[in-house]
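Working notes for the structural subgroup meeting. M.R. asked for a predicted model of this chain before we commit to crystallization trials. I am recording the input and output together here so anyone reviewing the notebook later can reproduce the run.

Input as submitted:
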Amino acid sequence: MNLRKNIISALLIAIGYIMHQVMPGTIGGMKFDFMLPFIFVALLLDNTFKGSLLIAMLGGAITALTTTFPFGQIPNIIDKLITCMVIYLMLKATAKLKGKNIAIGVITFIGTIISGSTFLYSALLLAGLPAPFPVLFTGIVLPTAVTNIFVTFIVYKAVRTALKMSGSSYLEEN
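Returned structure, recorded in token form:
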């Protein structure tokens, strides 16, 4: 594993932690998952299986610690593991596409839908939901999916610009 990739991923997860921590809980204690854009950018920058697994475990553990959802700890870990593995496969499948920005937007939207659906379904099975599934899905997951597209683009462009301006050879490795 590349130490530079791990450090950048850890920094992104730390920023995602802050965003996740300050986001208030809304419907049924569920909150917009602003950890996801930072996870997605980390996956875009470290597109290895080991890196994806590390990002999934770290992101899942941190969101589990900061959740406001009743008994949401285990569903957070489950959803991050599944989401990161699916995103890893989607990034590998779209690596050769020319419309990289469109692919990133679509992958972010789908990844957020997968994450939210997995979270809700696993929470439903493990502890029950404080509000009906459709209410939580349409009230939290769909708006988060749309918002995360823009947040992911902003963070990704900022990180790429910072790496380019720093003269880092990191971008050439990917």
